[in-house]
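Sat 14:20. Reprocessing the chain from the morning session after the first attempt stalled halfway. Input below, unchanged.
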Amino acid sequence: MAIQNPLLRLFGGSSERPPVASFQVVANLCAVDGATNAELEAAADRALEILTERAAGTALGPVVGCNFEAGSVEIEFTVEASSPTELHRKIGEAFRRLEEEGTFKYHDSSTARLDPQQDEPKRKMVPA
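Finished this time. Tokens:
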């Protein structure tokens, strides 16, 4: 019995190039040590600038907003892809641009487990 990846049905499992599908990407960038409202607004402006200018064609129609109560910048954009590999590559490219060209650093749970005493400068933004 063959096991089929459910994403293949979405993208089409034939040898022909599957149709392009659109996906919404939503992320929250949270300040590590807190941030003022002005700092959050500046981070939102910078994130929007990066996504519209540097990740154009990858992150489509980006929008940003600030959640002052949670101390986060909320980002949403669309990614079009014809395969799971392309989808993940494009999402990774958008976040790579945010990290390389902005003041944003990505830390996942494995990073936190590996280096709990990490000496990071204050007020860096990381995806929640």
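DSSP finds four helices and four strands in the chain.
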